[in-house]
Write a structure and sequence with these properties.
single chain; alpha+beta; Immunoglobulin-like; MetI-like fold; 3 domains; five-stranded antiparallel sheet; three-stranded antiparallel sheet; 17 helices
Length: 503
């Protein structure tokens, strides 16, 4: 044991100049280095955060001032934390030096509080770096509930009916000076749509990017399904269809008992390219969709079931190939089997190193590489999961081999058995239960990972889920989430029953 080599006053001054130095001088190297590294790291993170928040400022004083204006609470708490750690560090060095003066070193009781303050300082900086916003979390919860409710209960999207469309169209000239197109000819037994006036100006953007309302149109229709919603659609001069909006809502109306309706709307905003020439004839459509026939499985449901089956088999095939390749690798990575010579020990370290490197790279990254390698689709997902499974299963299998009972091995070797015979008759029988358990667990992981790597083109239901989310189709996305959860639950139950049979 070491003795204190400096006086309490000198230790306190040293820790005042360089935090942790006093502790180092009196022999508490680990404590001193920890204090110095903790305070230095937190200070560096604090300065980095100042640079991120106030990156336009040219000097550190300006950055501190700007950050204080924007993040007042963070800066005040951080500065108080730095001062408190600095003071506690000095008191720790002083108290430690007094306790160790002329005696063997013993630890002061105030250390836990010092490191608690350091942890609180790191937590404060981490809170700011992570941009945690409790106010937004609580105040915007109601907005999140709308898509979340569709994900939690998506079953309306699981079924659909055969639909019958009832539609009529009329034309409008987007030019107040030209000759308007003629009114459509009304045909008996078919819906009819007319608009007045038949020409006008589209809505436009003002100097402050506000919408300037276009010509007000009066739309009338007859011959539609009675007492049903009528959707208004618009097609610009280039044939691009869209639903016009009014005050943030799609323009819709409802037909009366005779199938007629009347409404007013302004001509919508539409950007026309400068190269467009000739009269800008736009089309307006009134469209009804009437559900007829029996309830059938929807396209999202069929597609979800198809791809969840693909996902299950992706996980199964990747696990199968992973087992085939991991078993021989696991024997090379088991130290108790490979420590007989320098050559075998070198093979052991090489195998372990390669497995650690491969396992440290997430399957998502392997999927990106596999997509470039073999193209989009489930095969890329299988390749990615297989590569990661070999490394993961190889590690688990090898550690299980290293933990086996050496008694049977010694008994077999005493009979003069070869290396291969020792493995077959002494090692493998002990490995079946853990091998089965690890294999089933890996299949469960691979099925769950299949839903993730599909998002980068690796096949399976993950790609479909990402598409639904991008299209804001939360009910269809909810179907995919439900089937993923059901599949994982079933696999968990099956794997538990299989493990029971082998344990």
């Amino acid at each position: 044991m070491s003795k204190a080599i400096v006086s309490p006053g000198f230790a306190a001054v040293a820790s005042f100049v360089i935090p942790g130095l006093g502790q180092i001088l009196i022999g508490k190297f680990r404590r001193g280095i920890t204090i110095l590294m903790a305070l230095g790291t937190s200070l560096a993170l604090f300065l980095w955060r100042l640079n991120v928040v106030a990156h336009r400022e040219m000097d550190w004083i300006g950055r501190l001032s700007k950050t204080t204006d924007l993040k007042t609470g963070f800066v005040i708490i951080a500065i108080i934390g730095f001062i408190l750690v600095w003071v506690l560090n000095i008191l720790d060095a002083l108290k430690l030096a007094r306790q160790t003066s002329g005696k063997t070193l013993t630890g002061p009781k105030g250390v836990p509080f010092l490191f608690a303050v350091i942890l609180a300082l790191f937590f404060t900086i981490g809170w700011q770096i992570s941009e945690i916003d409790i106010r937004k979390l609580t105040q915007e919860a109601s907005e999140a509930w709308v898509p979340l409710s569709k994900v939690l209960w998506p079953w309306e999207a699981a079924v659909e009916r055969i639909t019958e469309t009832n539609e009529a169209m009329t034309t409008i000239l987007a030019d107040p000076e030209g000759t308007p197109p003629p009114a459509p000819i009304e045909e008996a037994g078919k819906p009819y749509l007319d608009v007045s006036p038949r020409q006008g100006e589209l809505s436009s953007l003002g100097s402050s990017n506000e919408i300037l309302a276009g010509t007000l149109l009066t739309v009338t229709g007859r011959g539609f399904f009675p007492d049903q919603e009528v959707q208004i659609w618009w097609a610009d001069a280039m044939g691009n269809e869209f639903r016009p909006r009014h005050e943030g809502a799609y323009v819709t109306t409802r037909s009366d008992s005779n199938g007629a309706f009347s409404l007013q709307m302004v001509m919508p905003y539409r950007l026309i390219p400068p190269s467009a020439t000739g009269p800008h004839i736009h089309n307006m459509m009134a469209r009804q969709i009437n559900e007829t026939g029996e309830v059938i499985a929807s396209s999202p449901l069929k597609l979800t079931i198809s791809l969840i089956i693909e996902t299950i088999f992706m996980g199964m095939m990747a696990t199968f190939f992973g087992i085939i390749l991991a078993i021989p690798v696991s024997f090379l990575a088991a130290k108790n089997l490979m420590s007989g010579s320098r050559l075998s020990l070198s093979i052991y370290f090489f195998t372990r190193t390669i497995m650690n490197i491969v396992r440290s790279i997430e399957p998502l990254i392997w999927a990106l590489i596999a997509v470039v390698w073999v193209g989009l689709g489930p095969f890329a997902g299988i390749v990615a999961l297989t590569i990661h499974s070999v490394a993961a299963l190889g590690k688990l299998y090898s550690e299980a081999i290293e933990g086996i009972d050496p008694g049977p091995i010694e008994a077999i070797q005493a009979t003069g058995a070869t290396k291969l015979q020792t493995i077959v008759y002494a090692v493998i029988p002990q490995m079946i239960p853990p091998f089965v358990s690890f294999t089933i667990y890996r299949w469960d992981i691979n099925v769950r990972m299949s839903t993730v790597i599909g998002m980068v083109g690796g096949g399976g239901i993950g790609f479909l889920l990402m598409q639904y989310i991008r299209l804001l189709d939360y009910k269809s996305a909810g179907l995919a989430v439900w089937f993923i959860a059901i599949t994982v639950s079933i696999l968990d139950y099956v794997s538990a029953r299989i493990r029971e049979r082998f344990t």
